[in-house]
Amino acid sequence: MSMLPARHSLFDEFFRDFTPGFLVKPLHGDALPSQIKMDVKETGEAYQVEAELPGVGKEDIHVEIDGALVTIKAEIKQFDQQGKDERSLRSERYYGLVSRSFQLPQEIDRDAAGAKYENGVLSLTLPKRRNSGVGQRLRIE
């Protein structure tokens, strides 16, 4: 094993960054993000989540809550539009599904949770489930 650091030329860096994206990017529109970028903040009573989902219709966003596990899924559809008096010579479509799941420290009250989608940002308000403070005793048979 060599103790010397690896040396790369400027062209190696350029082609490493350029080539993979160049081969897989769609010919129009933005590429499907590899992961949903988000911020999660905690207040005394709830968690606030802001997730970036640019170019997604709100009908194509699905949020699932199971206890403390939250899953955000979005289906991305990009189409080339064609006028009624035009003849289509080439049509490109880009479909994709991106999702992200994360575990919060405390279970969520699903009935009180809220979601809002505006300007490509999904905002979730996820109230913490209140514990009754009294443990439930198990009956031993």
UniProtKB/TrEMBL annotation:
Pfam families associated with the record: HSP20 (PF00011)
Domain of life: Bacteria
Coiled coil region boundaries: none
Similarity annotation: Belongs to the small heat shock protein (HSP20) family.
PANTHER family: HEAT-SHOCK PROTEIN 20 FAMILY MEMBER
Record protein name field: Hsp20/alpha crystallin family protein
